[in-house]
Amino acid sequence: MTELEAFELIARQIHLDGVSSIQDGNPCSDTVSVLFYIENYLNDQGTPSAVVSALSDDLDKHNQECIEFNGGYGYEN
Questions:
Q1: Phi-psi label, residue 73: left if phi above 0, alpha if psi -120 to 50, beta otherwise
Q2: Using an 8 Å Cβ cutoff, are 66 and 25 in contact?
Q3: pLDDT per residue over 62-71, tens digit each?
Q4: Long-range residue pairs from 18-25, CB within 8 A, at least 24 positions apart, any chain
Q5: What is the pLDDT of residue 70?
């Protein structure tokens, strides 16, 4: 397994954990932040990952929907 594949595997697990939280009705802004951190780290290293970017964008979108559904509860600027 390459280093990039390892980061993608970790990102997939983080994404699944975030989705589980959202399905329970709980926003997961911290989880989204971790995915963005991994994405930025890979970009800074010169090894961007379309997989990690897609997972970050997907979780961010669904997290925002969860926050809106809950009337803004759990959102921190």
A1: beta
A2: yes
A3: 999 999 988 8
A4: 18/59, 18/62, 18/63, 19/59, 19/62, 22/59, 22/62, 22/63, 22/66, 25/66, 25/70
A5: 81
Q: Copy the structure tokens of residue 41.
A: 């780290």
Q: What tokens appear for 38 in the block?
A: 């991994």
Q: For residue 46, give both structure tokens.
A: 């010169």
To 10 degrees, the CA torsion angle through 14, 19, 20, 22? Answer: 130
Q: Alpha-carbon distance 43 to 33, whole Å?
A: 15
Q: What is the SS3 assignment for 4-56?
A: HHHHHHHHHHHHHHHHHHHHCCCCCHHHHHHHHHHHHHHHHCCCCCHHHHHHH
